[in-house]
Design brief:
single chain, alpha+beta, two-stranded antiparallel sheet, 2 helices, globular
Length: about 150
């Protein structure tokens, strides 16, 4: 007779959380969901539709978190574009608006355009300057262009 082997998952696998929370952000008439990974060095919050990324003195961790959120935004925007305008091509841009070297702030605009619809966000990067930790502010928008 052959004995069946049983496999037990180690406790730490069940205890480990990969996604700490999901934020709902209204953009136009659509809700975008952002899964925020667990990271003790970075805190992501939402207030009145604006996302804030801040954390400890390791600013690179905040930039990685921003890249994750941006990639998730692009994925959701392209899925929305596919649902609304199947034949239109999508255009993705990241434009520099302003750099303030005295205050260590960079203002940019990131968007996905398909057809006459533009979904994106303005984002302000407040670089760490010795007096403050770095902060990234993300302000989503939805714009319908006249054809």
């Amino acid at each position: 007779m052959i004995a069946l082997q049983t496999y037990e998952k180690p406790r730490w696998i069940e205890e480990r959380r990969i996604i700490s929370k999901t934020l709902e952000v209204p953009i136009g008439s659509t809700l975008f969901y952002f899964n925020i990974p667990e990271n003790p060095m970075v805190y992501v919050s939402e207030s009145n539709g604006i996302l804030y990324i801040n954390g400890s003195s390791y600013f690179e961790s905040e930039l990685y978190m921003f890249k994750d959120i941006r990639d998730e935004f692009v994925y959701q925007a392209l899925n929305l574009a596919e649902l609304l305008h199947k034949d239109d091509k999508s255009e993705i841009n990241d434009e520099l608006i302003e750099i303030n070297t005295q205050r260590h702030i960079e203002k940019r605009k990131f968007y996905v355009r398909f057809g006459n619809t533009e979904i994106g966000f303005y984002y302000n990067i407040y670089y760490p300057d010795g007096l403050r930790n770095g902060i990234i502010e993300i302000i989503p928008y939805y714009k319908q262009h006249n054809s």
